[in-house]
Amino acid sequence: MQEQKFELLENDSNIIAAADRLEMSRRDFLRFCTAAAATLGLPAGAEAAVAEAVATKPRPSVIWLHFQECTGCTESLLRAEHPTLEKLILDMISLDYHETLFAAAGHQVEAARLQAMEKHKGQYILVVEGAIPAKDGGVYCKVGGKTAIELVRECAADAAAVIAIGSCASWGGMPSTGPNPTGCSGVNKVIDKPVITIPGCPPNPYNFLTTVVHYLTYGRFPAVDALGRPKFAYSRLIHENCERRAHFDAGRFAKEFGDEGHRKGYCLYKLGCKGPETYANCSVILFGDAGAGTWPVACGHPCIGCTEQGVGFAKPIHQTAHIKTFSPPATFPRIVEEQGKGATLGAAAVLAAVVGVAAGAGARVAKNLGLSHEAEEARLKAEAAKAEAEKPAERV
Ligand code: FSX
Ligand code: SF4
Ligand code: F3S
């Protein structure tokens, strides 16, 4: 069924043109549209509408402002490991003003901004990257002689929508960390319009891309929560979908970087992982389109809660998280099990014979992924039993 639908779409002239434009195969283009529709939680069949919109809808004009930040949002968007992501984003929007990417400078670039605002009055999307300093009349961040507050208000006035990209623009992020000498905050504190926020430091470029896909397809942005975050991306705690969750539930924790638990891929809660109090989809969509294992926890570092106001850059990195859903019960198993306890050597030898072959291949994969401790345990047991069996018999 899916195959048939794909075949029909693959021969659509608009899809063929879009795939050519993006230098993707038609199938990859359709796969992307299907994945975007699934990420947005759209009903089956919506991928055709998404594909049609991405292929044919006029690209919305985007004015992109930079304030107090590190430009990591733009960097993460452009330096995605997989070039397709960047290509897709730049294909779907008409980037009419962007200080980092513009070749022009000075008055020329200011003129381009005003021209785009005039030409697309009431229709352009304003994207803001970076926090807005308000202290001392906003003197800590000026572009072309105007303060960040002035610029954001001027550009927001005729914008069809405002998107705050990154935690800095969403709620102040890193620059707003105490003592916050420039008095900076998120965009929503200085304008009266609703702001769609895509927090993260940097934010996942796929969440921005998917938000734009929704806008192209339906002419409106996806549903957001009380903080303006698209629900498709920020309605679940990282902890709910974490690949180390089974270790958390079983009471297996890394207690120090590089210790046995850390090497085995145990839960990072005791190292300060903020996954239990951070809403984001990093564990589900990974990061930067670079494939398996590319998000902080999979790399062995606790989540620092970079998307979450009051957590990221606010709580010490190694402070344990507030568990929103439940606390580990006192009945959880011991954190470090003793190898081989409870099994006789004979039983271990039988186990070695039975699981040895399976665990050999399985454990290698699991070790590479750093995900499973079970297979690793079985491999160690099998090796110990084999060594024991090969030992010369002791003299009596
Ligand atoms: Fe940097 Fe963006 Fe962090 Fe902030 O991302 S990655 S400091 S969220 O505004 O450039
Ligand atoms: Fe994953 Fe962190 Fe939750 Fe552990 S505490 S399961 S590492 S999100
Ligand atoms: Fe940030 Fe945590 Fe995701 S640190 S990138 S919210 S895993």
Summarize the structure.
It catalyses: H2 + A = AH2. The protein has 16 helices and nine strands.
Structure in words:
This protein is an alpha/beta fold. It is built from 16 helices and 9 strands. The chain has helices spanning 2-10, 13-21, 26-39, 46-56, 72-78, 83-92, 106-119, 148-157, 166-171, 205-218, 231-234, 245-249, 260-263, 282-285, 345-369, 374-390, and strands spanning 61-66, 94-98, 125-129, 132-133, 142-143, 146-147, 161-165, 184-185, 195-198. A 5-stranded parallel sheet has the order 2-1-3-7-9, sandwiched between helices. A two-stranded antiparallel ribbon has the order 4-8. The protein is globular, with a radius of gyration of 26 Å. The relative contact order is 0.09. Residues 340-376 have low confidence and may be disordered. Ligand FSX is lined by residues 69-73, 129-130, 166-169, 173-174, 201-202. Residues 238-239, 242, 244-245, 248, 267-269, 273, 275-276, 297, 303 line the site of iron/sulfur cluster.
Quickly list its features.
single chain; 396 residues; alpha/beta; 5-stranded parallel β-sheet; two-stranded antiparallel sheet; 8% strand; binds ligand FSX; binds iron/sulfur cluster; binds FE3-S4 cluster
